[in-house]
Specification:
Layout (H helix, E strand, L loop, with lengths): L1 H18 L3 H21 L3 H22 L5 E8 L7 H5 L3 H15 L3 E7 L3 H7 L4 E6 L2 E7 L3 H13 L4 E7 L10 E4 H5 L1
Parallel strand pairs: 1-2, 1-3, 4-5
Antiparallel strand pairs: 3-4, 5-6
Helix pairs in contact: 1-2, 2-3
């Protein structure tokens, strides 16, 4: 019974490690996988191998991978809509074209080895820009979406081209910012629909 439970857990962890879209989670799943392997060695009366597996594979290797992943950049995205009291992932993602756009932004980040971290909030742009530094702020104002990004970041340019090609039917406007999002309203570049034609 114990053996079967460990084998099933190992299979589940292996699949999770392979299928996870977030690299840090994959490393953590592999660390837990190695720890379960060390328990399996203990079960088969091989304590010296179990200790080596727990220390080297589960402990040291996981620590080295996580330290190396500090160089792996997190791309912080904020979705804000002041018209709603609460903005949830479910409201944005389920069955909406805007949800598809947000998913496309997420896939864009993953393809460039960035870890997308999406925060949804009903707070105003001023509050969001004061609270924390985001690489991208997507603000819904009625039927219009404004995407605020650093004007010097080449990823914003690539993302704009991608969204022009795929989402020209949405009323999306890119706003280039300088050092902060407080200057954003002065530097509107234009609507994607206008640029696509």
């Amino acid at each position: 019974m114990v053996e079967a439970t460990i084998f099933v857990s190992l299979a589940v962890l292996a699949v999770l490690a392979i299928e996870s879209r977030v690299l840090r989670l994959s490393v953590i799943y592999l660390g837990i996988f190695s720890l379960l392997i060390s328990f399996l060695y203990l079960y088969y009366n091989a304590p010296d191998v179990a200790i080596a597996e727990a220390v080297m594979a589960s402990g040291l290797t996981t620590l080295l991978f996580l330290t190396a992943l500090k160089r792996y950049r997190v791309y912080r995205i904020c979705f804000t809509n002041e018209a709603f009291e609460t903005v949830t992932d479910r409201y944005i993602v389920e069955g909406t074209r805007r949800g598809a756009l947000l998913h496309e932004v997420e896939q864009f980040c993953i393809a460039r080895e960035l870890e997308p971290q999406i925060v949804c909030t009903p707070e105003s742009l001023d509050v969001v820009s004061r609270r924390g530094r985001y690489d991208l702020i997507i603000r819904q104002e009625g039927d219009e979406l404004r995407i605020y990004g650093d004007g010097q970041n080449y990823l914003v340019d690539e993302l704009e081209v991608l969204l022009i090609l795929h989402y020209h039917d949405l009323n999306v406007r890119f706003v280039r910012t300088g050092e902060s999002t407080d200057q954003a309203d002065e530097s509107v570049e234009g609507t994607t629909g206008e640029q696509a034609s």
